[in-house]
């Protein structure tokens, strides 16, 4: 069968691996920006498109290529009922649930109604039709007063946290409402907005569904997705450490009942809030989830793992499920950490750009899912800044945590800030290790978002030496590239005595002197300390030092005045300038990519410091 994967990046490479084992022919799509990406080279055929969300164009190129089936993965068009219907209307197989079910579950209010009919508990809420009625803010305030704060405002047609706002107090309601209405208008055609009671100390638990066209439904256990930032998951695990055997059994039974009653087919996920021993239905995602690997790693059917992507194809082809609920066993424990190009210490600010080097350990228990197989690679500002997913399995939860921490400790990403240190700090936190945590974890323990230890004198010393040696090397190459430059002149202009640098790391700034006693024997001096280092070896990105008898291996890359140093899985980005030289950082550059949606001034208008421009 010839399958087109209507997506980009990591899910495409994940599907290619499974489809290869089934001997299917693989077709991918790519925009001009992505045409040199790894998944393009790994596919049998790649078709160019203008956008991953242009359903009409994707169907047109699929028909022209005589594609048999389309899988949308997650994100983009994966939960677009019109796209699903158009695929089947064009005579191709849609690898996913029917367009009718996607429509039902895509409406949060309709999904909630059906959940109530199936006997599931639901969160107190009202649905407001913002397109056909003017909402009286006073009435809205009265309702919120009645059910109690905090309140969650979310577009009924949205997903993945898009357009949501949490309102903690009455005085925040009006402004938050207007923001949600504006986003809802842009992204979801001014569909209904749900006003819900928000549980600040709940847990986020979901069940994995597989259902065939013959009415058979199985639930492949549950996943815990409680560690979140900006309503998006960071660390997931299976099974949940919070549930008793009886709770798990009841959850599986009620999930299967709901899926059967709505006529669900193929893979899907039912999401719940777990609070005070009760499960409250949130929504049903009519697609495979990003975090599906933790289910694949822990579920066994007749002793074998289940490949969910292969199962989706078999169901779409009309095949019955090859097993029943009685055959499903949950074995061991799995954890997943999502590695993002972002800065957790700056409110998780995305950090698109160039990854110079990306190294992770080859361990038997580590599964890495990533969009990239070759370096350098680019994190585009147009899409989610995920670099990779690290998935580990262990006999126990303790072993799985230890294995994931070890894997992260041996990981190096150079060129961009990442959340690797955040993931490690969460995994090592006593509250997470106890299993007794909730969705407020990252807010309650903000110390896990802080940058890696910035008071480590050895790190400042190594960063200064690397910046100095790279500066010397660049000057040497610059001078030797001029054939008229004599060796005497090269030696005369290169630093032979101490050189002074201003070294900055987040809010900490040092002035240091750097010198070389002998080849590869350096010293770094500040007023109160002096550290001697020997540079044992160096390669393109790898450096090994001896400091006070300790051998320390790091990876590093220099971009302008920014030195990105990675040690023990932690990324440190230093801003280092030679004293007397100006920084090459543009003081007018925005800290991240964005779109200007409104200007507060007009051309030629005089402005003063502090005036709002946009």
Description:
- There is one protein chain.
- The chain is an alpha+beta fold and 614 residues long.
- Helix content is 29%, strand content 32%.
- The strands form 8 sheets. The chain has a 9-stranded mixed beta sheet. Strands 28-29-30-31-32-33-34-35 form an 8-stranded antiparallel barrel.
- β20 (342-343) and β21 (349-350) form a beta hairpin.
- The chain is globular, with a radius of gyration of 27 Å.
- The chain starts with a strand and ends in a 36-residue tail after the last strand.
- Mean pLDDT is 91; it is low at 486-495.
Q: What is the number of strand segments?
A: 35
Q: Indicate the proportion of strand residues.
A: 25-35%
Low-confidence stretches: 486-495
Intertermini distance: 52 Å
Percent helix, as a range, is 25-40%
Gyration radius from CA atoms, angstroms: 27 Å
Count of helices? 17
Strand order of the largest sheet: 6-15-14-11-12-13-19-26-24
Structural class computed from helices and strand pairing? alpha+beta
Overall shape? globular
- Largest sheet descriptor: 9 strands, mixed
Mean pLDDT: 91
Short description:
The protein is an alpha+beta fold and 614 residues long. Helix content is 29%, strand content 32%.
Question: How would you summarize the topology of this molecule?
Answer:
Elements: E1 2-5, H1 10-21, E2 25-30, H2 38-42, E3 45-48, H3 55-64, E4 69-71, H4 81-89, E5 93-94, H5 99-106, H6 108-117, E6 121-122, E7 125-128, H7 137-147, E8 151-155, E9 165-167, H8 173-188, E10 193-197, E11 203-211, E12 217-229, E13 232-238, H9 245-261, E14 266-275, E15 278-285, H10 293-298, E16 299-301, E17 304-305, H11 308-316, E18 328-330, E19 333-340, E20 342-343, E21 349-350, E22 353-355, E23 357-359, E24 366-370, E25 377-379, E26 386-394, H12 397-409, E27 412-414, H13 420-428, H14 430-434, H15 441-444, H16 457-480, H17 487-493, E28 499-505, E29 508-518, E30 521-526, E31 529-538, E32 542-547, E33 550-559, E34 562-567, E35 570-578
Parallel strand pairs: 1-2, 1-4, 2-3, 4-5, 6-15
Antiparallel strand pairs: 7-10, 8-9, 8-10, 11-12, 11-14, 12-13, 13-19, 14-15, 16-17, 16-18, 19-26, 20-21, 22-25, 23-27, 24-26, 28-29, 28-35, 29-30, 30-31, 31-32, 32-33, 33-34, 34-35
